[in-house]
Amino acid sequence: MANKFSDQVGGFISLRLRGNAQEKIINMALARGIYIWDIKRRDDYIYLKVRTSGYEAFKTIADEQHFELDVLKREGLPFYKKIMKRRMGLFGGAVIFILALYLMSSFVWFVQVSGNDKVDRNRILMTAARYGIYTGAAKWNFSRIEVEEAMLRDLSEIAYIQCDIRGVKVNIRVVEKIRPDLNITGPCHIVAARDGVIEEVLVLDGQANVKAGDVVAKGDILISGIVFPPVLQETEGVPLPSTEPYHVRARGKVKARTWYEGYGECSRKTEEKVLTKKKFNKLYLETPWKKFLLKGKGDIPFAIYEKKEKVWRSPVGNWTLCLLKINEQTIEITEYSESEAVEIAREKAQKNLRQDIQPGLKISDSHIDILSSPSDSIVRIKVSAETIEDICLAQPFDGGEISN
Amino acid sequence: MDKRREIISKAVADLLEIPGDLVLDMPRLTITGRNELYLENHKGIIEYSTVRMRINLSRGFLEIIGDNLEIQALMPEEMRVLGDITSIKYID
User: Fold this and answer.
1) Which residues of chain B lie closer than 8 angstroms to A33, CB-CB?
2) Which chain B residues have a beta carbon less than 8 Å from that of A37?
3) Could you report the predicted ipTM of this complex, rounded to two decimals?
4) Architecture of domain B25-91
């Protein structure tokens, strides 16, 4: 027995037969090898189904025997083909849609970089672009593993690289090499990292150049790496040790009182541009031949406005879609009373100050100076802070240089 | 079919242990429940109505009595009958 699927592929016709001795016609069809099925009798009629290929032969038999033959229904793919022909646009559109989707998804649309800290993102992107991964690159033009290997070769600061291709998005994940701290092995001085007044000196190795209470400037030697041995009294029989100075790697801790300053100002009357909620968008499509305005006809209806441009470039050809976002602005005037202005300026000054001071440092004393006179339109404030911190900074020196 | 030839064929089939339906063109019926009948080696339909059906065989014919009988598939060698079958009878 033939299965239903092959019937569908070949197509079949439902028929209705009327006449005397219908068995005869069934037998005749059988003898000629016409496959018929679903034979049902309802009153005078016999309903049956025949394949499209056998229909003509069956019709000839029926006509010869003077039977009444009606076609009830045509089913199967060949008949659907007619419907498909009529709805060419729909099926064509579906095919074009799938093709376009496939074509578009075989390009790289987005490149992301993650995991980089010291290495510049643009450098990673440029290196990736050199080996084939850039916005608009066709996916069949590069091999992921080759790009990874080449990038790893080029970027010496990176220990591991992975290009994760997810659809149209490429995520470049990098792990940077952690280099061991550069240790000073040769002789060195300890110099002052900033100006201050020495509070405490602890020498582990080397010769102290300063004592508590001394004022030092940035760069002054605090603990010298050049050590002059003490001059000993000559005793009999024991030869004097060498009095030549020798070099060490100076170590120690020098705590000093240091000062930081922060400056801040605030105008009593400020004019500020503030966005209103009114917006106006213009959308352009730029082709190599002409520029089309798709949306937003007419001039910009605002006096003061902010313009933002968003541009999408097509990976192939020189097509760009450009969205011009125009937001209306108004000028807002804010006036501060003197105390308010002082407060704002002080906050700014303190913020400024905190940027200089290393986090975790304890401020032992601070005071605020108002630099401006009360009649000035701008309030200027200086905040000074006093801290005690370690100002040691190792500075290697050339072993040959001996000076005092 | 020639009587003598039939006897010889039967003897050969028995000797070689070949099923009769292959050598002797005998009908082979498969009945599933009482609703479905599968018949091989038929020789055409003599009569067909919803209650009675007669099928020609190489020798004699087969009478199927039942209700709502229909021929689900019909091919030169085989056929499938559906319906509520009440009796199947061989008639010479």
Assistant:
1) 76
2) 71-74
3) 0.77
4) Sandwich (2.60)
